[in-house]
Hints:
26% of the residues lie in helices and 32% in strands. By secondary structure, it is an alpha+beta fold. A five-stranded antiparallel sheet has the order 4-3-2-1-5, with no helix packed on it. A four-stranded antiparallel sheet has the order 7-8-6-9.
Amino acid sequence: MQKFQLTLGHLRIKDAQKRNKKQIFPHVLKQCKGRWFLIGTTVDTKEVMCYSMDQIEDIKPLPIKYEPYDGRWDEYFESVIGVTKKADDTPQDIVFWASQDECAYLAGKPVHSSMTPLKKNDAELRKRYRLPDDGKLFRINCIVNFELKREMASKFGERIVLEPPSLRKEIINDVKTMLNRYRMITSKRSKFV
């Protein structure tokens, strides 16, 4: 396999006119939520990078010897939901509550391969966080990234992250931002009411 030079468009709309060229060794194509991503290592730093295929405008082979990835991709993605991972990310224990209805869904489609029911400290955690009597507590061990936060917040209160507190606060802030935006468009001044 050859080394490729990728011409990428910036993901932010405000930077749409700028172009960014990356020289990478392509290694893996991975699908996530209906999109395909190219995973490769940069030529200069050997950093693992992830590029959405729909953002790649051009691929040009360069006359340099291909350097394979020094590791196993199945292990690289083992602790990740989705495709986003930084070199210094380490998996964390994440504890969450799921409603009874959500438990039925999770039985067939776990959030992550490490998901296990949490039985130890169940009563103490329910009391500390004032949780409903129904539902169950679960633990996963994975990297905190955008995809994890989206997955945990996507069920609109059917899943509640309890620990770590930093992740819980990030999700609360994201929900507050969403609520404020809905309030803004439904205010009396808005033409969308």
